[in-house]
Amino acid sequence: MFENIQKKFSLAFKNLSGKGKISEKNIKDAVKEVKLSLLEADVNYKVVKNFIDSVKEKALGEKVLESLTPDQEFIRILKNELIELMGGKEPEKLVISRNPGYIMLVGLQGSGKTTSAAKLAKMYKEKGKKPLLVAADTYRPAAIDQLITLGTQIDVPVFSGDKVNARKIVKEAKNYAEKMLHDIVIIDTAGRLHIDDDMMKELEDIKNYIKPEEILMVVDSMMGQDAVRTAKDFNDRLELNGFIVTKLDGDSRGGVIISIRHVTGKPIKLAGTGEKIVALEPFYADRYAGRILG
Ligand code: GDP
């Protein structure tokens, strides 16, 4: 993961290490390397510009210029800025206070939505909750079967109603959840390969009906800037609460996790780190900043 960006960053640090006295030019060169590596990692251009301005300002301060280990000082600045950009040290929690509480997952097809729904259900089950999964992805019948299979694996019931009308499924699922005393309801909604208006209308309709406390978009970290643009569109239409970024175990370049918060103003709340049902964890920005820096 993040291999390219790590290699590039280490080049920038090398230029600063082992130098007796560091000059403004050395730092500016290092900042330039960092800028190129971010752009190559598919980080949004505006994000890169902001980030670089801020790093430059701090790195040209006395602390780095006077430091005996300018490379270390520079890395420290980069790490802090990255953490800040990705949302601060403490991961943002899901906030569920109603009973039952509703979590609605949205996102494009293939992003890992159905898998993440099951992962979330398992997470809550382990906390002693009584989750219900709702299969409202009527656009892709296989997704309903997939959720039912996953639900069986983790011993969480899956409500799939008539498997045709998403809004009706959600409405009936609400009654069912209340009757069966479920305290968390996780709704898997329809995704498409690209955003389309019918899908958005359906999602808005479900959102307005159920008023979920958490509406989370599932985003594939391997998709780069396309994913960030799509995230912005989803957020503009649905006012998300945050993101679940998946496939962080793969060889993603880093662009999504570095850009998405700045571009949308919404936090990454959870990270998907594998295909297994337990591979979901709070998003620790400092850990990822550490990994990006190698
Ligand atoms: P959906 O179309 O959005 O519902 O996506 P799925 O849940 O069906 O996931 C698509 C593929 O991504 C499946 O093969 C999943 O096993 C895989 N997947 C989902 N999350 C992760 C993850 O965090 N890491 C990895 N490596 N694969 C994942």
UniProtKB/TrEMBL annotation:
Q: State the superkingdom.
A: Bacteria
Q: Name the residues that bind GTP.
A: 107-114, 188-192, 246-249
UniProt keyword Nucleotide-binding, yes or no: yes
Protein localization:
Cytoplasm
UniProt keyword terms in alphabetical order: Cytoplasm, GTP-binding, Hydrolase, Nucleotide-binding, Ribonucleoprotein, RNA-binding, Signal recognition particle
* Catalytic reactions on record: GTP + H2O = GDP + phosphate + H(+)
Primary site of residence: cytoplasm
Which EC class, in a word? Answer: hydrolase
Identify the EC number(s): 3.6.5.4
A GO molecular function assigned to this protein is: 7S RNA binding
Q: List cellular component terms (GO).
A: signal recognition particle
Which biological processes are named by the entry's GO terms?
SRP-dependent cotranslational protein targeting to membrane
Domain (SRP54-type proteins GTP-binding) ranges: 267-280
Subunit details for this protein?
A: Part of the signal recognition particle protein translocation system, which is composed of SRP and FtsY.
Q: Which family does it belong to?
A: Belongs to the GTP-binding SRP family. SRP54 subfamily.
Function according to Swiss-Prot or TrEMBL: Involved in targeting and insertion of nascent membrane proteins into the cytoplasmic membrane. Binds to the hydrophobic signal sequence of the ribosome-nascent chain (RNC) as it emerges from the ribosomes. The SRP-RNC complex is then targeted to the cytoplasmic membrane where it interacts with the SRP receptor FtsY.
Question: What note about domains is in the entry?
Answer: Composed of three domains: the N-terminal N domain, which is responsible for interactions with the ribosome, the central G domain, which binds GTP, and the C-terminal M domain, which binds the RNA and the signal sequence of the RNC.
Tell me the protein's name: Signal recognition particle protein
Q: What is the lineage of its organism?
A: Bacteria, Thermotogati, Thermotogota, Thermotogae, Petrotogales
Gene of this entry: ffh
**Residues of the whole record sequence present:** 1 to 294 of 442
